[in-house]
Every structure is written in C-alpha cells, then in structure tokens.
Design brief:
Helices cover 65% and strands 0% of the residues. It is mainly α and 84 residues long. The protein has a single domain, classed as Histone, subunit A (Orthogonal Bundle), CATH 1.10.20. α2 packs across α3. The termini are far apart.
C-alpha cells in the first residue's frame, strides 16, 4: 500500500502550474527539489509573519502584516550578502 505524503502543495497542482508555464515534462527529482524549496520559502514567510504580529502586539494576522513581513524579508535578502 502506498504511503500518503504530507505536502503543503499538492503535487498534482504543482505539475499543473508547471505545465501552464510551458514546461512539458519534469523529472521526479526536480519536482522533489521544487517542493523542498517551496517549503523552505513558506516557512521563512511564516516566521516573518509571526515576528510581525508579535512586534505589533496582536494575535490576529492582518493583510498589512503580510505586506510588511514580505517587504522585510526582501530587504534582509538584499543585504544578506554584504560584509562589514
């Protein structure tokens, strides 16, 4: 019996989106790598969202928190390669 994998994004939906973008075929190893990278990115975004609501002293996540967290994440990546 096949074991069900716990994934954030269903593989079928990911393949459909890849096909929409013009990629006809994809290797299973490449698909696994994409899933791993997306999971890492989503966890980073969620971590930034949690920090944002803690800073604002709220328990409820709002739309503006998402915008602020995404801007903050982009700025951190821009300057992460700089050495002082």
């Amino acid at each position: 019996m096949k074991k069900k994998a716990n994934r954030l994004i269903k593989r079928k939906n990911l393949i459909l989106e890849i096909n929409k973008q013009g990629i006809k075929r994809i290797n299973t190893e490449a698909l696994d790598e994409i899933e791993k990278l997306l999971t890492i990115q989503i966890r980073e975004i969620i971590k930034n969202l949690k920090q944002e609501i803690i800073i604002n002293g709220r328990k409820t996540l709002k739309k503006e928190d998402i915008k602020n967290a995404l801007k903050k994440g982009v700025k951190e990546k821009e300057y992460s390669n700089w050495e002082i």
